[in-house]
Structures are given as C-alpha cells and as structure tokens.
Design brief:
The complex is a heterodimer of chains A (about 200) and B (about 325). With about 200 residues, chain A is mainly alpha-helical. In chain A, about 70% of the residues lie in helices and about 0% in strands. In chain A, helix 4 (about 70-90) crosses helix 5 and helix 4 packs across helix 6 (about 110-120). The relative contact order of chain A is 0.19. Chain B folds into two domains: about 35-165, no CATH class; about 165-324, no CATH class. The two termini of chain B are about 20 Å apart. Classes of the chains: A mainly alpha (about 200), B mainly alpha (about 325). The interface of A and B includes residues 169, 176 and 182 of A.
Chain lengths: ~200, ~325
C-alpha cells in the first residue's frame, strides 16, 4: 500500500476533492442544516468527528473485513459512532442538540462518510485514514460554515449572536430550501472560477 | 434547439423588443392611471438598474456592451417586473428584483437566448417569497405623487387604506368560507383590474397583428385558464368565481400576451406551444383557486418553463422528406 503524505491528504480533503464542492456528496444535510452559522458549524464538527473515528476504526480492522459484506459493516461502524456522538451531545450540549434534532442521527446516511471509508480508509493504515477523515470532514465543515454564515447574514442580518444590521427586514429566500440550492451553486461557481484563475498563467 | 430550416431572424431582436415596449404602453398607462404614480417610478428604477447590471455583467463576461444594451431585452425584463410590483413597494425591492432577474436568471444561465426561466418572473417569484409583507400591499385608491415617492424612498410609510386585490378578496371571501353557508354574489368582472387587463389585451392584439408573437400562446393560455375556471365554476358556482372574472383579474392578459410569449423561454414548436400555453393557463387557474399566493401567473409560467425542453423534444414536426 502506498503511503500518502500529510500535505497531500490535507490538500485533497480541503480543496481538490472537497466532498461538498467537488464530489457533491452529503448534500442533503448540507442544504438542510446550513441555515445558520451555529447549526452549520455544529453539524460540520459532528460529521468530522464521525469521519475520523469511523475511518480509523475501519482502518484498524481492515485486514479482517469480509469483502462481500463490507458495506453493511461500514454502515454498522458509522452508526455506532454516530449514536455515541448523538448521546454525548445530548449529555453535554443539550440545547444545541434540541435545535439540530434529527440531523445528528442522520449523519449516518451522509454518503460522503461511507464514500471516504470505501475509497480510502479500508485500504490505508490507521494514521492516514484518521487524517483523511479529519481533512475531508474539515473541508465539508468549511462549506457548511460558509453556507450557514452567508444564508444567516442574508436571511436575517445576524451572525451567531451578533446583529449586523438593525431593522433589517430579512431576505426570506435565503432561509428557505431554494436559497440553499442557489447559495451552494454560487459557492461551486466561485470555486470553479478560482480553479480556472489559478490554472491560467 | 428548434428544427431547421433557419431563415433569417424576422422580426429582428430590437424590432421585437421595441414592439413589445410600445405594446405595453396602453396597459401601463391604464395601470398607472388607476393604481397610481408608483408604476412610473418603479419602471424608471427598474430600467436604470437593469441597464447598469446588464452593462456590468457584459463587461465582466467580455461581451460587446453597447450593442447588447441597445437590443432592449434587459429593458423589457425590467418593465415586465415593474408592472408586477405594488405601487408603494420600497425602491430596494425593485433594485434587488431587477438585479436578480438580470444577473441570476439571465446571465448566469448564459445570457439572452440561453436562460431557461423567464427572468422577470424568476425575480417576481423570489421577491414574493422573500418579502411577502411589502409585495402584497395594494393601496385602495391611488396615492399622490409626493406620497408615493416618500413611500418608495422609505421616508414615510403609507397611511391610507390598503385593500385586497380582487383575487385575494375572492379567495378569502368565497373560496375559503365554503363551510359557512351564505356568501355574497360575485362581481361579474374584477373591479379596476378588468380595465387594466383590457388595455393589456389591446396592446397584445397589436403585437399579434404585427406578427411579433405567436397567436397560439395567448390563445392556449387564455383557453386553459378559461376552461379550468369554467369547470370549477360549474362544479360549485357559489364559491368559485366565473371564468370571465378570472380572465379580468390579476395578470391574466398581460401574462398571456407579454410574459408567456417570451421567445426564449416559451416552447418553440407549434404543438409544444399549445401544450406549454394551455398548461400555464391551467396551472394559473389551479393556483388561484387552491393556492395561497396572490396570483398564479408567475408560478404557472415558471413551472411550464421547466417542461419546455421536454415539450420541444417530443413535439418536433416531421422533417420534410422523411416518414414519421
């Protein structure tokens, strides 16, 4: 198995293979929860946690997996991790857990996690799998935070506990599902513009 | 892509857009006369914003600026949006809407000729969803120029009476009280709006006479709207308004002649146009009768815009010299 350098993993996870902007995976939670900065940040960090833990676990047992039933095994490991994080949040971050509600258990269905395990973690050592999970998760979180902040700012004129514009009437579209799609499309467009600008010289 | 042959474009684009602007004149004048100065101010704001946005995007996209500005398509989009806005809407709503229409709905899809959705209707739908408070306030009597200006600039809020549009009144007074038994009689025509729609119809007929638009689209749209409301009326004449009321209310005729006929976003085959227009008329009636929005024209046309590529694909005419 070839080893992958730390920088390479970081560059892939954060930019070249960003799960939200390039692979377009995990869009359901991405679009549904990114209506405020706080929600986006929390769901992003929880997803990152799940990616690191489940990726490392799978990598640790990668020699003993039965190839024909590997997908159910992956899902089982992810589900265990998600449930643990769900219970931990319920114990220590109860109010946040209340607002995010169903979306924490639904991290199980985030195809980006399964995708990274199938494509990377199940055939690399624990350290690399963990790092890959970390950077992929951070790349995903970055997009969630950007979307959440942008939508909250446009939709309500606030950012977390800050009120940026007084008497702002609110741009309802940004808070609604179509606004999430439009905002994600614009983010992807910005990324593509940056890529082609970097490639030009 | 419509099937060949491709004759030289007739009418030319600037003729078409100039014709549309001229044909909007009677409807616009009557609407301005009956509903107040706001229309004129919004037209000015919208056209100015549209020209600035269009020029800006064209510079960014490195396209010829003056030649494209002169074709008038951005101005038509701006005017169509301004005609949908309540007269006392604040200026920033108009500016936001026009910007969305030109930048998001037109140029992000590739500019004139490539946009799938009618830019003016995209902007109207976005504004209605985003600012329902200001987008549904229609004053009962036209406000004076000074008062209108103050409202649009946000210097003061309107203190006259605001009323429901005829369509809203029908919805709240008849359709939604179907349980309560006794209901007042319908007016045969929508007050005020019947005159506005009539004037748009006159402008539309002039466009038809000059062959700037295809007669199938207004005919299909009005036919679909009429038949659907006729069915609803015959099923329950106490609660559903007459078909004639539907035709005279809201944006029926301006939608049929000016919005549904947008050559870019309408279907391009004859049979496709029938289906596109009749579908839009049907959806307009259904949204008005059962929806919660003030009017259904914008949403109906946007929904049918989705269907246009499929319609064009399945209604291609037989190519000359081949068997079906």
């Amino acid at each position: 198995m070839t080893t992958v350098s730390h920088q390479e993993l970081a560059a892939r996870g954060l930019w070249h293979n960003n799960q939200a902007l390039v692979a377009l995976l995990g869009l359901c939670p991405l679009l549904a929860v990114s209506n405020s900065l706080l929600n986006g940040l929390t769901l992003g960090l929880a997803t990152t946690g799940v990616m690191v833990v489940s990726g490392s676990l799978i990598a640790a047992f990668r020699d003993r997996l039965i190839a024909s039933i590997r997908l159910p095994l992956f899902v089982l490991v992810i589900a265990v991790t998600v449930s643990s994080i769900d219970l931990l949040m319920q114990a220590f971050l109860f109010e946040l857990h209340q607002t995010l509600g169903l979306f924490i258990p639904l991290i199980v269905t985030n195809c980006a996690i399964l995708g990274r395990i199938e494509a990377f973690a199940c055939r690399h050592p624990v350290r690399e799998a963990g790092l890959d999970g970390l950077y992929t998760g951070l790349g995903f979180s970055g997009v969630l935070v950007a979307l959440g902040a942008g939508r909250e700012l446009l939709g309500q004129g606030t950012l977390g506990s800050l009120t940026l514009f007084d008497g702002y009437q609110g741009f309802q579209l940004a808070m609604q599902p179509p606004g999430a799609f439009i905002a994600l499309g614009l983010l992807i467009a910005v990324r593509n513009a940056v890529v082609s600008w970097l490639r030009k010289p | 892509m419509s099937p060949g042959p491709y004759p030289r474009l007739r009418p030319r684009l600037d003729d078409l857009m100039g014709g549309v602007m001229l044909a909007l004149l009677p409807g616009g004048l009557v609407q301005g006369w009956l509903l107040g100065w706001g229309l004129l101010l919004h037209c000015l704001i919208a056209v100015l914003t549209a020209l600035v946005c269009e020029a800006l995007v064209l510079v960014i996209r490195r396209r010829p600026v003056m030649a494209t500005l002169r074709d008038g398509s951005a101005m038509v989009t701006a005017l169509l949006l301004a005609l949908c806005l309540p007269p006392l809407t604040p200026w920033w709503v108009t500016v936001t809407g026009t910007g969305l229409a030109i930048i998001l709905a037109k140029h992000l899809y590739g500019g004139l000729g490539y946009n799938i959705f009618n830019p003016a209707m995209v902007a109207y739908a976005m504004l209605l969803v985003s600012f329902p408070g200001v987008m549904t306030v229609w004053p009962e009597t036209p406000a004076s120029l000074v008062e209108t200006g103050n409202c649009i600039l946000g210097l003061s809020s309107f203190d006259g009476t605001t009323g429901a549009t005829p369509l809203d009144a029908v919805k709240t007074q008849w359709i939604q009280v179907s349980e309560s038994g006794e209901t007042p009689r319908h007016p045969p025509l929508a007050p005020v709006w019947a005159w506005i729609n009539l004037a748009y119809g006159v402008g539309g007929l002039w466009l038809l006479a000059r062959r700037l638009i295809d007669w199938r689209i207004p005919a299909g749209f009005l036919g679909g709207l009429f038949l659907t409301s006729l069915v609803a009326y015959l099923m329950d004449p106490l609660h559903y308004p007459t078909p004639l009321f539907q035709l005279s209310a809201g944006a029926s005729l301006s939608g049929a002649f000016f919005i549904a006929t947008d050559p870019v976003t309408a279907a391009s085959t004859p049979r496709g146009r029938w289906i596109y227009a009749a579908g839009a008329g049907l959806l307009t009636a259904l949204i008005r009768l059962n929806g919660s929005w003030p009017d259904g024209v914008a949403f109906a046309i946007l929904l049918m815009n989705f269907a246009v590529p499929t319609l064009d694909h399945y209604t291609r005419p037989r190519v000359y010299g081949t068997s079906a």
